[in-house]
Structure formats: structure tokens, C-alpha cells
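To close the section, here is one more complete example, presented without commentary so you can practise reading it yourself. The ligand is zinc ion.
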Amino acid sequence: MNRVLKIISVILFILLLSVVSYGSEISVQLSGSIEKIESYVDGRLTYFSLSDLASILGEHISWEQVGLSAKYVSDEYTMTFFMDSPYIKINDSIKNLIYPAQFEKGNLFLPIKTFLPIFDLIHPDRVTWDQDRKLIRIDSEFYNVTDLAFAPKANGLLIELFVNEPKEYEIYITEGNWLNISILGGKVNRRQVLSRMDRKYLRDINVVQFEQSAQVSVRMRQNIIKYTDRFQSNPGRVQISLIDPSVSVVSDRNHVDIGPDNSINKIIIDAGHGGSDYGAIGLNGSHEKKVVLDIAQRLAKLIRKDKIFEVVMTRDKDKAVSLEQRTKIANESNGDLFVSIHSNASLNKSARGFQIFYLAPAWNDEARASAQLENASFLAEISSGGDNDENDLTFILSDMIQTEFQVESADLAAIIDKEFRKKLKNKTKARGLDQAGFYVLNGVYMPSILVESAFLTNKADEKLLNKKSFRQDLAEAIYEGIKRFKAKYESQ
Ligand SMILES: [Zn+2]
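Output:
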């Protein structure tokens, strides 16, 4: 090869090399579009123009002290930079970029590798640096673990970690009252979660993004003695109930007025079970869900005929209704009384009779057995992570609203029991009043009772329950009780 050509090609090669090393053009990717921003390499460090990035983000930088410092103000944070200083001020704390901020012709340049991780922590969107593509990615759809919330309940604290879609998760308690929630495949919005630090409940909070998972850890003020957890949808969230066993569900509160005007106008009738939940099954194959729907419909018909009350039914056909839906229907329709209708079952085939329950921790084994039976279908809904062998109210966090009405609920139960005795005593056994922890009564914001009409597992009782006249008697007895209750409370 010609000597001159050789020299030229060497020069060209060197030129090409220098183009590669200095041509480190940087782009910003924001919601699909890519824009170039100014940058340069100083030594081995790449600097980029924060001024350019700010304008892409729709924000801007103001210069102070005649170009000696610059301020970047957004809705979420304020950053102050000082000429030729590696220190920056973010809100009220000082961070070290290790390399100095550089001001060039009204442009603020920062070392990309040390600034972006800091920026990512404070910026609401995910900010990452793609070294290979020389790309700053700003990704608002990136996170699936988005927020954290606390809601105090009377018997504990409800913690909710919002996760966009159902994900595998793990909860573990570590020394020092740390509650750790690990979300497999989680991408956590660290800034948002950290902003939920609440000194009322927490001593500390920590968020770590691992490659395969995200971990949110909260150090609780209260001792973690017992908890349950489950995944809830719409919006997706992991709910953790920290239960305080020292709080009794029974409150010794004084009388609370019923409704704003003390009047009783709307009756919620809750037919137990339904759909794939058959409830108790009789000796001769009767289904509780069917029997109780018929009683509920008879009761509704009676009430509607008189026009003294309005009626809302949690179900009026054979369909499954969740615990949440039942309480939601009751509360959102502003019911004044809640009557849940069931029929009982027992391994002891001689057990028979009617029984009226109101909500409170079970006093005795029999009441506990009834509650366990009725709660079983709801237990399937709630996947528990804590120990759930106890069938008491502490299993789920209560808004404790029920206890406000405990006096009235007990009274309603007593009045209806009286009517049952009048009408049914010659037909089956009166088992009396009792209290137990029925979940369905737990979240209902009104006086409420649960009627166990008779035993499907008793031959004579099942026969009765299959009689129209007996179901009509049950409906009438409940209705009489409701009217008496109204008369009593409205005259007070
Ligand atoms: Zn039932």
C-alpha cells in the first residue's frame, strides 16, 4: 500500500475512534418518544444537560446569584445546584454527586451516573440509565407496587400495599417489630411508598428493589402479635390485618341512637348462602340456601304489603353473594335493621329448635359451633396467613361499628325471640338467645341479628322447614318482632 494512503487511513481510523468516544449522544425516552439532549464527556465521565431534561419534563431551572447556583423546582421537590460543587440540596437534605455540577452557557450539566440514581428516588416516575443505548428512560407505567396505606380499626390496624395485579407475595416478621412484605416480580415506586411514613403507626420504613422482587418493610409501633393477610382486587392490594388481641369486641358503650332521626324505616333481609354455597344440607337432602331464600322472600312480601318499612334483600335468587357484598348492600342502602336468615346443622341429630343470635364473641361451645358453621363459607373467601383456628371476631379486623349497636342488636334479638316463642314453641324447641361471632354481622352499620330457623339435620325440624306454613310462621314472627322493635325505639 502507498505510504501516503497508509497514513491517511491511520488518521481516518484515529478520527473515527475519537468520533465514537466523543459522539456519546444522549437521548431521553419519555412515554414512547425519544429526544436528544446535550451532553459531553469530561475525562471518563458523561455529563448531560439537566436543563434539556427539565424542558422535556415540562419543568424548568431558574438561575440565582448571577449564575452561581441553579434551582430546579417541581411539584414534588426542589433541587439546588452550586457551580463547580459536587453537593446538591434536595428539599432540605444535602446529597453528594462526587463530581461537580458544571454550568455552561446557561446550561446545567450533571454527571449522569451519580445524578440519575438520586433523581430516580425523588422523581415520581421511574428514571433509569441505559448505558448501551445511551438512553435516559423515564417510565411512568413502570411500577406495579404503587402505594401504601394505613387504616386504624378498633381491634387493630389495616395495612394495604397496592399492587397492580395479583402477585405472589410473602410476609415475614423480623426482630424489632419489622413487618416485611416481599412481592415477587414487584417494581416498587419507592418514593411514593416512602412518603407514607406515618409516625403514628411506624417507627421506620424501608423499601428495597431487588432484581426479581420488591420488598417493603415497616417497623411498627405496636407489637405484632397476630396478623392475617389476603389479596384483594379493585384496586389490587395486599391487605394485612395487624390484630390487637387485647381489644375486646364487646364494648361497654352507652346507648347509641339508631339512625340520624332515630327512626326505623329500611329493613335489610339477608338470605344466607346461595349459588355454589349450599349452606347446611338436610337429612333428606334439603338445602339451606333454598329454605332460607323462601323465608326471606316471604318476609319481604309481608313487609312490602304493609308499606311500613322498605325492604332491601342481599339476594332474591339463588346466587352466591360474598361477605363484602352483603355488608356493602346493607350499608350503602342505609338500612336501619339487618336480619340474616339461616337454618342450623349439627352432628347431633337430636339437636333442634330455633335460635336468635347477635354479634359478639361466642359465650359457649354451641354458639361457637353455629358461628363456625355459618362462617365456613366466608372463610373460603378469606385466605388467611395468620393462625385462623380461632373462630372469633378477632380473625378479621372490625370497624367495630357493630358494637355501637350491640345493645340494640341484643334487644332486637330478644324481641324476635319472644315472637318466635309465641308462634313456634309448640312446633319446635326454643333454644334462646345467644351471641356469637358471625362475620356477616361484623361490618354492618346497624342493629343486626342472625336467625337460625331450625335444624336441617334433625328429622322433625327438616320436615317443618319443608312446610310452607312453617316458613310463613317464621317470616311472620320476624316481622312482628321488627314492628315491635320499631314501636319501642321510636317511642323513646
Ligand atoms: Zn347458614
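Once you have examined the C-alpha cells, check your reading against these statements. The pocket of zinc ion is lined by residues 272-273, 279, 288, 342, 374 (CB under 6 Å). Confidence is low (pLDDT under 50) at residues 16-23, 248-260, 381-401.
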